[in-house]
Specification:
heterodimer; A: mainly alpha; ABC transporter involved in vitamin B12 uptake, BtuC; 14 helices; 74% helix; 0% strand; globular; B: 259 residues; alpha/beta; Rossmann fold; 6-stranded mixed β-sheet; 4-stranded antiparallel β-sheet; 10 helices; 12 strands; 34% helix
Chain lengths: 336, 259
């Protein structure tokens, strides 16, 4: 446990600094750190104005947004796995991805003019994601009295419906729009800016805190609904709060960075294999592990074939899958 | 802390599983519910423990109606040992028993020193001390059942409801578990409502037997009388003999040789 926590902390620092230092324009670690200290009045900034702009206006917000996205997606995935007691659960389970996809496609196809992805895209993606989860909840939420599987199935149905609407919209639009929709769907941190960081930060802080605070409740709920109620847990209230927090945070992240796959399902499983089945360990560690993992993956995505970029979702899967298989083969079987 | 069940009816869809059951179980006594499969025993004890909302009627403990309470308040008054408990693989025995204290320290705080003392004392009484770090999934049937009972005892309630607590245990472990419960009743004025299939053990350990059939109470009285009733045999559709062995009533089914 201590070893894993220490490793995660080190990985987070390495990924964070790497996110600032590594790139087509090579800038040494010392000078970047020196520049950071100069902002708080210690030492002198030795970076040229151009290097400063590259580090602090491009790489830094991108790195920070990556930390936030990785943390949120990982903790949301772990939370969903706990609340649904289902190892296949990921943050997109209840229709967040399909709803955001439809919203973003609508923005790009109907609102956008010219080549750029319109400024409305994040807002419409967010509205789409929250609408989708709300519909899923209205269909499946009543069944929560007896069976969470109904909510999952409602999510599958809503996702299928919205994805078909999104595909239709996309198919009706111009070739240029199709490309931009496709790029958006794959997810990317390339458009990160400080304003997008400030926009998602409150959502991530609140939603991650709620999920981590619910860890003890998720541990109790591993004995099933009836028994956890008899032990004093208001199961339906906990489910509502936790699902709302995980979905809201995921919607905020997806609206800013698109659909980054794999982090939400794989990170909590890797952490579970390393620290055991208690969510009081899994969720806090997943926050930091997910953050480090996504920044690490993004650094690879933007450097391997620079100046163009690999889709981030491709890298998360490419890095995550072998690591997961390796740990899986070394440790005991997965149980949730 | 007497338990008063008043006119309890539980319906699922159009089917009535429990119909107009009234019981008055005095504090510090043991009441066992017997009856054939499908009689509604499990539904009844789940409703008594507050896990099922009754269609009509009520359950109250010391004058407080369970249906009107929050889960947390209820968990400090009545505990249940379910027939098929979920065993969360990967959890330690200590953490499992500690689940019984959640209703006291809450979902946002960790166990207090007092909570830990209670958990240690329960582990000790259930002779689970040496297993405290073991994964719950690795226990034998007898150890597992003691652990589930330990979780219920850790809730420090005055009433415990048990649904078939000795199913799947060998004779020795059956007797051990029931003796453990009997001593909790004697030492802590615990009130017990249990369902049991074994009529001989039911008669030996309970102060009172209730025969349930078709969701209704057919017989209700001191164990000795209910065991010897002709009604009991006819509800099971069997010929039963009751043999007195050193003061204990042993119920034996007799094969119908004319068939």
């Amino acid at each position: 446990m201590v070893v894993v926590a220490a490793f995660t902390a080190v990985a987070l620092c390495v990924a964070g600094v790497g996110g600032l230092v590594i790139g087509p324009t090579s800038i040494g670690v010392g000078r970047v750190v020196g520049s950071l200290f100069s902002y708080v009045g210690v030492g002198h900034n030795t970076l040229s104005p151009l290097q400063s702009a590259i580090v602090w206006q491009f790489r830094a917000p991108r790195m920070v947004l990556g930390l936030l996205a990785g943390a949120m997606l990982a903790v949301a995935g772990g939370t969903y796995q706990g609340v649904f007691r289902n190892p296949l659960a990921d943050p997109y389970l209840l229709g967040v991805a399909a709803g955001a996809g439809l919203g973003a496609t609508f923005a790009i196809v109907n609102v956008g003019r010219g080549l750029a992805t319109p400024a409305w895209t994040p807002l419409l993606a967010f509205v789409g994601a929250m609408t989708a989860v709300t519909i899923t909840w209205l269909i499946g939420g009543r069944a929560l009295r007896s069976n969470v599987a109904t909510l999952i199935l409602a999510g599958v149905a809503v996702s299928a419906l919205l994805t078909s609407a999104q595909t239709f919209l996309q198919q009706q639009s111009s070739v240029g729009s199709i490309t931009r929709v496709y790029i958006w769907l794959l997810g990317s941190l390339a458009s990160a800016s400080w304003s997008s960081v400030w926009l998602v930060l409150p959502y991530v802080l609140v939603c991650v805190s709620v999920c981590v605070a619910a860890a003890r409740a998720l541990d109790v709920m591993s004995v099933g609904e009836d028994e956890s109620r008899s032990l004093g847990v208001p199961v339906r209230k906990v489910r509502f709060v936790v699902i709302a927090a995980a979905s809201l945070g995921t919607a905020a992240i997806v609206s800013a960075v698109g659909l980054i796959g794999f982090v939400g399902i794989i990170v909590p499983h890797i952490v579970r294999l390393l620290v055991g089945t208690s969510y009081r360990r899994i969720l806090p560690i997943s926050v930091f592990f997910g953050a480090a993992f996504l920044v690490f993956a993004d650094t690879i995505a933007r450097t391997v074939i620079a100046p163009s970029e690999l889709p981030l979702g491709v890298v998360t899967a490419l890095v995550g899958a072998p690591v997961f298989v390796l740990i899986l083969s070394l440790r005991r079987p997965v149980s949730v | 802390m007497s338990v008063i069940v008043h006119g309890l009816t539980v319906k699922v869809g159009a089917r009535t599983l429990v119909h107009d059951v009234s019981l008055d179980v005095h504090a510090g006594t043991w009441c066992t519910i017997v009856g054939p499969n499908g009689a509604g025993k499990t539904t009844l004890v789940e409703a008594i423990a507050g896990l099922r909302r009754p269609s009509s009627g009520s359950v109250s403990v010391s004058g407080q109606t369970l249906a009107e309470m929050s889960e947390r308040d209820r968990a400090r008054i009545i505990a249940i040992v379910p027939q098929h408990p979920v065993i969360p693989s990967g959890m330690s025995v200590y953490d499992y028993v500690a689940l019984g204290r959640v209703a006291y320290h809450g979902l946002l705080h960790s166990a207090s020193a007092g909570d830990k003392r209670t958990i240690d004392s329960v582990l000790d009484r259930m002779t689970l001390g040496e297993f405290r770090h073991r994964d719950v999934a690795t226990l034998s049937g007898g150890e597992r059942q003691r652990m589930v009972l330990g979780r219920a005892l850790a809730q420090s309630t005055m009433v415990i409801v048990l649904d078939e607590p000795i199913t799947g245990l060998d004779l020795r472990h059956q007797m051990d578990l029931l003796e453990l419960l009997r001593s909790e009743v004697a030492d802590c004025k615990l009130t017990i409502i249990a369902t049991l299939h074994d009529l001989s053990l039911a008669g030996q350990f309970a102060d009172r037997l209730v025969l349930l059939d078709g969701g209704e109470v057919v017989l209700d009285g001191p164990a000795r009388e209910v065991i010897r009733s002709d009604e009991l045999a006819s509800r099971y559709g069997l010929t039963l003999r009751v043999i007195d062995v050193d003061g204990a009533d042993v119920v034996v089914p007799v094969r119908d040789r004319s068939r």
